[in-house]
Design a protein that fits this description.
22 strands; Spore Coat Polysaccharide Biosynthesis Protein SpsA, Chain A; 552 residues; alpha/beta; 36% helix; Rossmann fold
């Protein structure tokens, strides 16, 4: 199969060339080196299955060999590029696209057109689905890119309607990784460059605008699947990572991973810079069975290593010597056969980019199929401990704490009433130095299905806690408790059952630690669904609160 790739020496295009070699395809790459780089293709320039043509696709080109598939990726794609090359950007996405569509028509071959999330402009809905028409300024400084990509899509659709060509349009969201250019102007290379040189990190606006970043390896997998699948013919598909973070958070992650001493400076936000960008990848999951696999932490590590090794002006950074702080996630489990695998998977793939993660699962003598499920779990990254008989949630948590090695510890029930995506929200006060203990409150966040008498009981226990310990917490019994390892020093936990919650609270308060609360989402279960706490545990919690108030 002969595959024509425009922009073949560019950041994404060169990775595509490399991928197609592994599939034994013949690759014909076209690039004019306006933003591409010869070094990106040096490793396969002499391969007999690779042909490179230096050419500007704005000018027509007659192919002297059959083309079976076109991957159209030629275009400046960063704010600096299309600010410096606005006319070139518009031409390559209009006339350049026209020329590639003509080759597709003449060769009766399929074409995959690389579009962009910029067609959504500054969206007023999030996440963005393919059906969303966008909110684009047609005469703004970014319009040369935004509108030319929209024209490229429209022209592709017109060729399909008139000439019947087989097309797929992919809308690429922010992608990063090795082979990005130093002067790319995009946020990740900017931050890495500044951090490795210990220069101030420049943030435009207040840093609260959000982005989602897809590692290039994941994107290439998505592109390859889209190009091979018959189901994607005639489809427009988002490709990106739905994990959303603020630009300010990203700067802190990169600073940590670079072991940098850079300060952060704020500059005015450029005109039409989107405040929110996050893909809905439901269609990609359904049609391609695709979703990103590389975590932001791992992707950033690989990208930082690339920049550190390939650019002499950077300080020498030994990332292997960098020790990130660790979050230990303790998961007590009893008879959770229906949710245990979902819980572990969700926790494992929840991003905490500037921390290492340790998952400790304690099976507390389950007598359903939970023990067998955990025994068959072949995952060396997860510690699994079995209690021979049921001893209670408190005993399981105490076992978990005894083997946890993290700087921070959080309790995560396996019933999925709490959402691991709230980890970052809970970690922020500790990382910012505002707290050593953080509780996730169900009463200040989004919740559903909390039973009325459970709500009354929880509020009564919180009121008693506040009276006895002079606090103002709204949710003492929350299952989401996060604390530093130092906060446990001098505390000896004794509870075996659900009274572990008031015991922790009482002893934190007696130690003089103020409890910080953040709102978390909560989806409660009923007894028929496996909820195990009862009114008897409420009385035991009251007794525990009074006991530790009166007894040292």
């Amino acid at each position: 199969m002969n595959v024509l790739i425009t922009g073949g020496a560019g950041f994404i295009g060169s990775h595509l060339c490399e991928r197609l070699f592994t599939e034994k395809k013949r690759v014909i790459a076209i690039d004019n080196f306006v933003t591409g780089n010869r070094d990106n293709i040096k490793n396969f320039i002499d391969d007999p299955n690779f042909r490179f043509i230096e050419h500007d696709i704005v000018n027509p080109i007659d192919m002297d060999e059959k083309v079976d598939l076109i991957l159209h990726f030629a275009s400046p794609a960063s704010p600096i590029d299309y600010a410096n090359l606005p006319i070139e950007t518009m031409l390559v996405n209009s006339i350049g696209t026209l020329n590639m569509l003509e080759i597709a028509r003449k060769n009766d071959c399929r074409i995959l057109v690389a579009s962009t999330s910029e067609v959504y402009g500054d969206p007023d809905v999030s996440p963005q689905k393919e059906e969303y028409h966008g909110n684009v300024n047609p005469i703004g400084p970014r319009s040369c890119y935004d509108e030319s990509k929209r024209f490229s899509e429209a022209l592709t659709m017109s060729y399909s309607r008139v000439h019947g060509i087989k097309y797929t349009i992919i809308r690429i969201f922010n992608t990063y990784g090795p082979r990005m250019r130093l002067n790319d102007g995009r946020v990740i290379p900017n931050f890495i460059s500044e951090c490795l040189n210990n220069r101030p990190i420049t943030i435009y606006g207040d840093g609260k605008q959000t982005r989602s970043f897809c590692y290039v390896e994941d994107l290439i997998e998505g592109v390859d699947r889209a190009a091979r699948s018959e189901d994607t013919i005639g489809q427009v598909i988002n490709l990106g990572n739905p994990f959303e973070i603020t630009v300010l958070e990203l700067s802190r992650y990169i600073k940590t991973l670079c072991n940098s001493s850079s300060d952060i400076v704020f500059m005015p936000l450029p005109k039409d810079d989107p405040l929110q960008r996050r893909p809905d990848i439901s269609k990609a999951k359904a049609l391609l069975g695709w979703e990103p696999k590389v975590s932001l932490q791992e992707g950033l590590r690989r990208t930082i290593e690339f920049f550190a090794k390939n650019h002499a002006e950077y300080v020498n950074v030994d990332l292997s010597a960098l020790r990130l702080k660790k979050l230990s996630i303790i998961m007590p489990v009893f008879n959770e056969k229906n949710t245990i695998l979902e819980a572990i998977t969700k926790v494992k793939y929840t991003e905490v980019p500037d921390l290492e993660k340790e998952i400790v699962v304690i099976d507390d003598g389950s007598n359903d199929e939970t023990k067998e499920i955990l025994s068959n779990l072949n995952d060396q990254s997860i510690k699994i401990i079995f209690h021979e008989k049921n001893r209670g949630k408190g005993a399981a948590i105490r076992t978990g704490i005894s083997v946890a090695t993290g700087d921070y510890i959080i309790i995560q029930d396996a019933d999925m009433e709490y959402d691991p995506h709230d980890y970052r929200k809970m970690l922020k006060p500790i990382i910012d130095g505002k707290a050593q203990v953080v509780y996730g409150s169900r009463f200040t966040g989004e919740r559903r299905d909390m039973l009325f008498w459970h709500m009354v009981g929880n509020k009564l226990l919180s009121l008693v806690t506040n009276v006895l310990y002079n606090t103002t917490i709204s949710d003492m019994e929350t299952g989401y408790k996060l604390f530093t390892r130092e906060s446990l020093e001098g505390i000896r936990l004794k509870s075996n059952r659900f009274e572990i919650e008031p015991e922790l609270t009482a002893k934190f308060c007696r130690k003089g630690l103020r409890i910080y609360e953040v709102p978390v989402s909560y989806a409660g279960r009923e007894k028929a669904e496996g909820k195990k706490i009862s009114w008897k545990d409420g009385f035991l919690a009251l007794w525990t609160l009074f006991k530790y108030r009166l007894i040292s």
